[in-house]
């Protein structure tokens, strides 16, 4: 990973982390464990980043496979054309 991308990731992380604690649900006044797993699975503020990351990763993997398949098809066409010329 080059320095520019690494810097962007670090800045994004630093900017986003404090905002996650800015909503109700992280206080000592609650009777249930505010930091429990149920809170993180039911609050949209916590679930949405996981969903967004999952979508981005699946799009990247799908796009990479699509480009590889496209490259393979182009190479097959080039090989067939070269074999016919001989």
UniProtKB/TrEMBL annotation:
| Name by which UniProt lists this protein | Uncharacterized protein
According to the record, the segments passing through the membrane are 46-67
Q: Which range is the signal sequence, renumbered to this chain? A: 1-22
Write the record's keywords in alphabetical order, separated by commas: Membrane, Signal, Transmembrane, Transmembrane helix
What top-level branch of life does the organism fall under?
A: Bacteria
């Amino acid at each position: 990973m080059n320095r520019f991308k690494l810097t962007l990731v670090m800045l994004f992380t630093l900017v986003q982390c404090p905002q996650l604690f800015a909503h109700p649900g992280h206080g000592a006044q609650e009777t249930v464990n505010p930091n429990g797993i149920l809170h993180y699975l039911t609050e949209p503020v916590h679930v949405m980043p996981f969903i967004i990351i999952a979508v981005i990763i699946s799009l990247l993997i799908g796009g990479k496979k699509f480009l590889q398949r496209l490259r393979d098809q182009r190479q097959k066409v080039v090989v067939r054309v070269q074999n016919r010329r001989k």
